[in-house]
């Protein structure tokens, strides 16, 4: 008998005659009403000690330029498919020499202050937003959803997904949150309205 | 389970030593208090916490009831997405599979993301025997590994260490540590970043666990904070994930419940900094999933105890437990300490050793663990059930058998009460010999001159 068959047989013997269970879903599902979505999202991202700017769609390119200048970022990686009117794409092979990465996102969650990347256009493979020490992410207003349930309906599980809530952090020393361990130590978000 | 703790004395003996350590008690008190406050405020914030908790409980129960179907579905989905699925009935088989996969790559080093399952099976030790070095990359795991220590908490294995102690460990054991390292948490985190950077970029094989697996899509989900998880999950060419069979969820949408329950219960955040999700082999990686039983199907067979398999390892029950806060995690002699450990360890390992038999008694049954548990595991009830199953000490068994004989017939009881009343002056305050265990921590109750029944018969309920 293979271990697979053995384990499955043990499961059958263990719960074969147990009653099944109904799943009550009385919690707030997708599509809940919410006012002030953008402000809510901005405030929640700031709670993680990330820098947030809310700018008009026409000013995104300038805001990106300003942020990179403030950071004095020389070598910047910009993934394929990033909107050309915001910033020209720039591929850098050796990520360890990069000062900054600029990306879009797939969806953003107001209640938890989370951005989700799905490795699609303007986001690139997962390592791009991991190795550089500074991550600048542009979120379009129509990408912001109220809660976690809404976000899941918009995402495709077949794509590799990275959910990001603030800069990398640890609570391992006396259970206090310290920003900046292995991922980018600084997260900056530009919300385009 | 892991060999690490074999031969450890029972919980009361370990705890008696631990509570003498005032530094340990101070560290634990400080840390658990901080996290309790944070958890409470982010849980309060959600108007539908109770409904999420009910859904979380029901989704897990439904999955366990249909585990066979969902495991087969998971296997098919992962295979279709280019991953390879392995089945391990016990720790030994899981370790053999992983060691074989690592050796097939020709590598002698692997990086690891914190995982309870691989600790449970003692994977690092098993790999070492095969000539493979496993490097823990989670900060707390690193502190434990460098300090030759044992983990004492599910989420923060080095919770028993304060910043000054961590600094000492880094200075002594980290080759590339800055000489002027302070005990500022920021400086300590920076030192870890520096120490592991090269290792991440060089690593060819990574080993992880998973918080959830989705049967419908074949997706694995890992929640973390530091980014070490992302480093291990994305950079290496080969990824091996060892996951307990109870980590399954039926559908993609079920994550809407658990991605709210878990971060708020564990680190007390609205969301943890990073969550990675992947389905099969992605971005050119070679992906292996090892499905682990190792006693879980035995737990599943126990009608009362099986609810322990709902556990999502958030550690909220540890953080509120008055026993854990004083005794610390090491006293439980298992990678699963605290209230969940007290019910999970004896079920996974059986109750053959004095330590494992003593664990169901490592509780005051106050119920705080049940209140905070995001999947509503009724830990006190499982503890009581396990207590009944544990073999009790000889004196206690004889005492209980004698009491049972007396209580069984009212004549015997009345006779015993009359006898007790007459002898009351002669009963010592402390019991002798093996019975002293009882009076070490309790007063013997005073025996009244007359029992209530005798008084009632004599006075007709006080009428005379
Ligand atoms: S038993 Fe409940 S509270 Fe304890 S770790 Fe598991 S899920 Fe969390």
TrEMBL record, chain A:
<feature type="domain" description="LUD">
    <location>
        <begin position="88"/>
        <end position="191"/>
    </location>
</feature>
<dbReference type="InterPro" id="IPR037171">
    <property type="entry name" value="NagB/RpiA_transferase-like"/>
</dbReference>
<protein>
    <recommendedName>
        <fullName>LUD domain-containing protein</fullName>
    </recommendedName>
</protein>
<dbReference type="InterPro" id="IPR024185">
    <property type="entry name" value="FTHF_cligase-like_sf"/>
</dbReference>
<dbReference type="InterPro" id="IPR003741">
    <property type="entry name" value="LUD_dom"/>
</dbReference>
<dbReference type="Pfam" id="PF02589">
    <property type="entry name" value="LUD_dom"/>
</dbReference>
UniProtKB/TrEMBL annotation, chain B:
<dbReference type="GO" id="GO:0006089">
    <property type="term" value="P:lactate metabolic process"/>
</dbReference>
<protein>
    <submittedName>
        <fullName>Iron-sulfur cluster-binding protein</fullName>
    </submittedName>
</protein>
<keyword id="KW-0411">Iron-sulfur</keyword>
<keyword id="KW-0479">Metal-binding</keyword>
<keyword id="KW-0677">Repeat</keyword>
<dbReference type="InterPro" id="IPR017896">
    <property type="entry name" value="4Fe4S_Fe-S-bd"/>
</dbReference>
<keyword id="KW-0249">Electron transport</keyword>
<dbReference type="Pfam" id="PF02589">
    <property type="entry name" value="LUD_dom"/>
</dbReference>
<dbReference type="InterPro" id="IPR004452">
    <property type="entry name" value="LutB/LldF"/>
</dbReference>
<dbReference type="InterPro" id="IPR024185">
    <property type="entry name" value="FTHF_cligase-like_sf"/>
</dbReference>
<dbReference type="InterPro" id="IPR037171">
    <property type="entry name" value="NagB/RpiA_transferase-like"/>
</dbReference>
<feature type="domain" description="4Fe-4S ferredoxin-type">
    <location>
        <begin position="308"/>
        <end position="377"/>
    </location>
</feature>
<dbReference type="Pfam" id="PF11870">
    <property type="entry name" value="LutB_C"/>
</dbReference>
<dbReference type="GO" id="GO:0051539">
    <property type="term" value="F:4 iron, 4 sulfur cluster binding"/>
</dbReference>
<dbReference type="Pfam" id="PF13183">
    <property type="entry name" value="Fer4_8"/>
</dbReference>
<keyword id="KW-0408">Iron</keyword>
<feature type="domain" description="Lactate utilization protein B C-terminal">
    <location>
        <begin position="388"/>
        <end position="459"/>
    </location>
</feature>
<dbReference type="InterPro" id="IPR017900">
    <property type="entry name" value="4Fe4S_Fe_S_CS"/>
</dbReference>
<dbReference type="GO" id="GO:0046872">
    <property type="term" value="F:metal ion binding"/>
</dbReference>
<dbReference type="InterPro" id="IPR009051">
    <property type="entry name" value="Helical_ferredxn"/>
</dbReference>
<dbReference type="InterPro" id="IPR003741">
    <property type="entry name" value="LUD_dom"/>
</dbReference>
<dbReference type="InterPro" id="IPR024569">
    <property type="entry name" value="LutB_C"/>
</dbReference>
């Amino acid at each position: 008998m293979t271990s697979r068959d053995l384990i499955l047989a043990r499961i059958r013997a263990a719960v074969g005659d147990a009653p099944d269970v109904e799943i009550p879903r009385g919690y707030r599902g997708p599509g809940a009403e919410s006012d002030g979505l953008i402000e809510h999202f901005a405030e929640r991202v700031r709670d993680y000690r990330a820098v947030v700017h809310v700018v008009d769609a026409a000013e995104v390119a300038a805001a990106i330029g300003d942020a990179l200048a403030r950071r004095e970022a020389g070598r910047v990686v910009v993934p394929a498919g990033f909107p050309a009117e915001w910033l020209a794409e720039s591929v850098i092979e050796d990520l360890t020499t990069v000062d900054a990465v600029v990306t879009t996102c797939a969806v953003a969650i107001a209640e938890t202050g989370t951005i989700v990347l799905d490795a699609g256009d303007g986001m690139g493979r997962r390592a791009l937003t991991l190795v550089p020490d500074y991550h600048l992410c542009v979120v379009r207003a129509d990408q912001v959803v109220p809660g976690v349930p809404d976000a899941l309906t918009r995402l495709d599980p077949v794509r590799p997904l990275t959910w990001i809530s603030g800069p990398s952090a640890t609570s391992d020393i006396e259970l206090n949150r310290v920003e900046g361990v292995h991922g980018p130590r600084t997260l900056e978000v530009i919300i385009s309205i | 389970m892991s060999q690490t703790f074999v031969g450890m004395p029972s919980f009361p003996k370990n705890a008696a030593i631990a509570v003498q350590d005032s530094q340990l008690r101070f560290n634990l008190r400080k840390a658990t208090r901080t996290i309790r406050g944070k958890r409470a405020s982010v849980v309060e914030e959600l108007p539908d916490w109770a409904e999420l908790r009910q859904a979380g409980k029901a989704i897990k129960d439904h999955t366990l009831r249909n585990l066979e179907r969902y495991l087969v579905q998971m296997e098919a989905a992962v295979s279709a997405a280019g991953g390879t699925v392995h089945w391990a009935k016990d720790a030994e088989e899981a370790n053999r599979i992983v060691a074989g996969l690592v050796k097939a790559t020709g590598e002698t080093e692997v990086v690891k993301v914190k995982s309870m399952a691989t600790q449970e099976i003692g994977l690092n030790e098993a790999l070492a025997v095969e000539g493979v070095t496993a490097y823990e990359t989670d900060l707390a795991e690193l502190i434990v590994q460098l300090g030759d220590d044992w983990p004492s908490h599910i989420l923060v294995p080095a919770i028993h260490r304060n910043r000054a102690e961590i600094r000492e460990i880094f200075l002594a054991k980290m080759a590339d540590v800055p000489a002027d390292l302070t005990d500022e948490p920021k400086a300590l985190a920076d030192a870890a970043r520096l120490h592991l950077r090269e290792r991440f970029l060089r690593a060819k094989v990574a080993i992880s666990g998973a918080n959830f697996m989705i049967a419908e899509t074949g997706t694995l989900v890992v929640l973390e904070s530091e980014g070490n998880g992302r480093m291990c999950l994305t950079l290496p060419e080969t990824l091996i994930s060892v996951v307990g069979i109870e980590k399954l969820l039926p559908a993609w949408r079920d994550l809407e419940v658990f991605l709210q329950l878990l971060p708020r219960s564990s680190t007390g955040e609205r969301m943890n900094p990073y969550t990675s999700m992947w389905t099969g082999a992605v971005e050119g990686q070679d992906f292996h999933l090892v499905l682990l039983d190792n006693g879980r199907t035995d737990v599943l067979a126990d009608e009362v105890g099986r609810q322990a398999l709902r556990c999502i390892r958030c550690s909220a029950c540890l953080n509120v437990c008055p026993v854990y806060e004083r005794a610390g995690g090491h006293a439980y002699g298992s990678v699963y300490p605290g209230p969940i450990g007290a019910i999970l360890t004896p079920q996974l390992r059986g109750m053959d050793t004095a330590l494992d038999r003593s664990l169901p008694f490592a509780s005051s049954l106050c119920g705080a663990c049940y209140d905070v548990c995001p999947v509503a595991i009724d830990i006190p009830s499982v503890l009581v059930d396990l207590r009944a199953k544990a073999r009790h000490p000889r004196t206690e068994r004889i005492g209980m058998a004698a009491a049972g004989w007396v209580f069984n017939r009212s004549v015997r009881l009345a006779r015993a009460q009359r006898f007790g009343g007459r002898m009351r002056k002669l009963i010592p305050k402390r019991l002798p010999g093996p019975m002293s265990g009882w009076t070490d921590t309790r007063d013997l109750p005073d025996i009244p001159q007359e029992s209530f029944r005798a008084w009632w018969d004599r006075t007709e309920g006080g009428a005379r």
